[in-house]
Amino acid sequence: MITIEKLTPADRPAWEELFRGYLAFYQRDEPQQTYDLAWERFLADDRIHALGARLDGELVGITHFLMHANTSGPDVCYLQDLFTAPEARGRGVARALIEAVTDFARERDCMRVYWMTHETNATARLLYDKVADTRGFLRYQIDL
Length: 144
Known about the structure:
The protein is of the alpha+beta class and 144 residues long. It has a single domain, classed as Aminopeptidase (3-Layer(aba) Sandwich), CATH 3.40.630.30. The chain has four helices and five strands. The protein has helices spanning 12-25, 32-44, 93-107, 122-131, and strands spanning 2-6, 49-55, 58-70, 73-84, 113-114. A five-stranded mixed beta sheet has the order 1-2-3-4-5, with helices on both faces. Helix 3 links the parallel strand 4 (73-84) and strand 5 (113-114). The radius of gyration is 15 Å and the shape is globular. It starts with a strand and ends in a 13-residue tail after the last helix. The mean pLDDT is 95.
């Protein structure tokens, strides 16, 4: 059975391992400061949030998300990161995390939950195409 809950201080090592796996998937290598700052923000749980998925008590999935203002209606929720340990894939972990973020946003009267993934992330897109609609937007970015 999958359980979803907020992360606790005791989850730090398992969370960091999962987050490093997520960033490695996207070929990113971040300094330790990135993990320390993110963890601090997740424990504060005010501007950015994190949930963990457990199977048999073991942390096997994480999601990071935030709510923000929307110029054309109620606030929206951005699901920024989602990662499942390789050994737990195909067991409903990612779907349960998406549902938990959706419930969180719904309880706060958000108008939508949205996220992005790389076009080559075919495995994740199989799930995403089942639980959400794609609207055809392209992402542009200016690094600072």
